[in-house]
TrEMBL record:
An individual GO BP term: tRNA wobble uridine modification
UniProt family annotation: Belongs to the class I-like SAM-binding methyltransferase superfamily. CmoB family.
Signal sequence residues: none
Entry keyword annotation includes tRNA processing: yes
Coiled-coil annotated residue ranges, if any: none
Gene name of the record: cmoB
Name used for this protein in its record: tRNA U34 carboxymethyltransferase
CDD domains: AdoMet_MTases
Function: Catalyzes carboxymethyl transfer from carboxy-S-adenosyl-L-methionine (Cx-SAM) to 5-hydroxyuridine (ho5U) to form 5-carboxymethoxyuridine (cmo5U) at position 34 in tRNAs.
Enzyme Commission code(s) on record: 2.5.1.-
Length: 326
């Protein structure tokens, strides 16, 4: 029932991430022993049943695609589809495996398209994605030239989905892209990453200032932060805290204006702070699909006025902000 991260530990032993080995293996071992989700055993079994298939083609530059239809026997294709459906709901993607499209709730590729033009080159960089979900963007970071793309996320179904996709990545890539079962509070101050992404996480944190400080503590000097989060319209003193749910999401705490967020970033030790994108989330970008059959954004907006959530707050508006560590 264990997930084996020993290849990853060996991979980072001779990399700038080597100091992580002082805490990481023990944290992961404790997690495997104590904190596994009730369905984890079943998920691990599903993972082991996935058919062995070698991809003849890989595309991480325009999409996340491993293999084409002719790489896989029809029987195995049906088996693959059935097994991957056991990891529903698939929220972040889409993924293209041997001609099969995993059509996820989110078009995470659209988010990538908004972020990518504003990145310092990822060529040969060590990159961290805090709260990476199923790891869709990790693959795109690798596709953009990163030496290593490492994600952390405590969501165990996301980890299983990532492992299922990773199984079909060629060996040369597999070792450079990893998702670790950690929350942001589990990270030591590594101060080594060239780029730190955190997309869709800040509003889930009770203490956003502490969170921004934790992001900074992973960056080397002059390293780039890429922050994507929900914002509201307003001046530098405007911040929304929902009374309870926001667009039906629990655990939503602070939605600042972009001006307030820039102020927070200045106070947290960042420079070169730029709001590079502002986007109202559309019901085409976040919607129910065959791979995520639950309710989605259209159900979370006021049917009479879609500029509002069903709770009466401004509908989701997302900003991308880049900054560098002082
Ligand atoms: N303490 C924590 N530490 C790290 N991650 C956490 C923590 N708590 C929750 N998460 C993770 O943060 C992610 C937020 S989703 C963004 C995914 C991707 N980045 C995207 O931009 O599409 C957006 C949303 O669901 O609202 C989830 O995968 C959580 O498991």
């Amino acid at each position: 029932m264990m997930i084996d991260y020993s290849n990853f530990y060996a991979r980072i032993a001779h990399s700038p991430l080597r100091d992580w080995l002082q805490t990481l293996p023990k944290q992961v071992a404790d997690w495997q022993q104590q904190q596994l989700h009730g369905d984890f055993g079943q998920w691990a079994k599903t993972l082991r049943l996935l058919p062995e298939v070698e991809p003849s083609e890989v595309d991480l530059q325009n999409r996340v695609k491993f293999g084409v239809e002719s790489d896989i026997q029809p029987g195995d294709a049906a088996k693959l589809q059935g097994l991957l459906q056991q990891f529903k709901p698939w929220r972040k993607g889409p993924f293209d495996l041997f001609g099969m499209s995993i059509d996820t709730e989110w078009r995470s590729d659209w988010k990538w398209d908004r972020v990518a033009p504003h990145l310092d080159s990822l060529q040969d960089r060590h990159v961290l994605d805090i709260g990476c979900g199923s790891g869709y963007h990790l693959w795109r970071m690798k596709g953009a030239g990163a030496k290593m793309a490492v994600g952390i996320d405590p969501g165990q179904l996301f980890i299983m989905q990532f492992k299922a996709i990773q199984k079909y990545a060629p060996q040369a890539i597999t070792n450079d892209v990893e998702l670790l079962p950690l929350g942001v509070d589990d990270l030591p101050k590594l101060q080594v990453f060239d780029t730190v992404f955190s997309m869709g996480v800040l509003y889930h944190r009770r203490s956003p200032i502490e969170f921004l400080t934790q992001c900074r503590d992973q960056l080397r000097k002059d390293g780039q932060l890429v922050l994507e989060t929900l914002v509201i319209q307003g001046d530098e003193y405007s911040v929304l805290m929902p009374e309870d749910r926001y667009a039906q999401m629990r655990n939503v705490w602070f939605l600042p204006s972009t001006a307030a967020l820039c102020l927070w970033l200045r106070r947290c030790g960042f420079k070169d702070i730029q709001v590079v994108d502002l986007n109202r989330t559309s019901v085409e970008e976040q919607r129910a699909t065959a791979w995520m059959e639950n309710q989605s954004l259209v159900d979370f907006l006021d049917p009479k006025d879609t500029s509002k959530t069903i709770e009466g707050y401004p509908a989701p508006l997302r900003a991308v902000i880049t900054a560098r560590r002082i």
